[in-house]
Amino acid sequence: MRLVQPLLKGGMGLDEALAKRRTVRSFSPAPLTREQLSQLLWAGQGATDEAGFRRTSPSAGALYPIDLLAVIGSGSVEQMEAGVYLYESRTHSTTLLVEGDHRDELARASLSQFWMAKAPVSLVVAAEYGRVASKYGQRGERYALLEAGHVAQNIMLEAVSLGLASAPVGAFVDTEVRNLLCLEARISPLLILPVGYPK
Ligand SMILES: Cc1cc2nc3c(=O)[nH]c(=O)nc-3n(C[C@H](O)[C@H](O)[C@H](O)COP(=O)(O)O)c2cc1C
């Protein structure tokens, strides 16, 4: 499904967003708009050239090992069904991977951090090391981990700019999150970012 076009200008100033960013663990159930979801995904991995080859986050050798997924609850994003969606940078669109509201299971897989399930949306930053290993060998894994950090920080700052809040969650059982998101074994979930209006 094609997302609404992201805004390339405006929003909060970078310094203000940096100063305001906090890990927030308490969210209002208010839904996000499709524009907000579009902007968050674009901030993480959106295309920034005409051909769609370059993105908002840098990538070693421009090999882009990071995948960005969205776990969306029922009534959590206006006019969007609950489900697990994969973001496609080049076309700025989402593909539905799994139907249904899986926020509770995601929180359980995250060592029962149930506060996460209250966030309307959780973005999941995942890596496929193989995409960088062919060029960089073992060092490719390090690059992918660094890139996951770039992507996550972009999303957290974008959330602040949109009047939203987020949290980085690294404590989860990889296999459980992978199964829940129907990811292949070669894809490693690295960080989960619940996002919503702070309560
Ligand atoms: C890699 C990483 C993993 C984290 N994992 C969790 C987590 O599983 N649960 C949680 O509540 N906070 C988690 N945090 C958030 C930190 O606790 C938080 O960033 C820290 O307390 C500093 O607060 P601040 O982000 O508000 O500045 C994580 C942060 C990072 C960078």
Could you give the order of the helices and strands? HHEEEHEHHEHE
Query: Which architecture per CATH?
Result: 3-Layer(aba) Sandwich
Structural class: alpha+beta
Rounded to an integer in angstroms, the radius of gyration calculated over CA atoms is 16 Å
The third-level CATH topology is: NADH Oxidase
State the shape.
globular
The amount of helix comes to: 25-40%
CATH homology superfamily name = NADH Oxidase
Bound molecules: flavin mononucleotide
Report the average pLDDT across residues: 97
Number of domains: 1
How many helices does DSSP assign? 6
DSSP summary, beta strand count: 6
Largest sheet: 6 strands, antiparallel
- Strand numbers in spatial order across the main sheet: 3-2-1-4-6-5
Q: Please indicate the percent range of residues in DSSP E strands (runs of 2 or more).
A: 15-25%
CATH class: Alpha Beta
Amino- and carboxy-terminal Cα gap: 30 Å
Residue runs with pLDDT of under 50 for 5 or more positions? none
List keywords for this structure.
single chain, 199 residues, alpha+beta, NADH Oxidase, globular, binds flavin mononucleotide
